[in-house]
Write a structure and sequence with these properties.
Layout: H1 2-11, H2 14-25, H3 31-49, H4 63-100
Length: 101
Amino acid sequence: MHLQKILVVFLFTKSHFEALIDLIGKIPSVGSHIQKPFVEFLEKQKAKYHQTGGASNAEDGSLIQYCYGLLVIGMISYFLLSIVNSMARQNATRSQDNKSK
């Protein structure tokens, strides 16, 4: 657990983020277009987590948060659908076995 904390702190230092932003900017033909929204996102996250005082920032969720929520709902729906499908197959197999006897 402590190694994980050290790794997170090390990777998310300002110098590493600046190096990452520079690398993103060097991507041919799309780097400069991606770099600006990425910097804005990082600034917003930094302001969100470094705010002073007890008041929390009650902004609307970001696009990433919305997409992640949809992904989780989709995965849960797929899981439930697979359970229902498996039960239906077992029931169909059982009923065919009973008819053949």
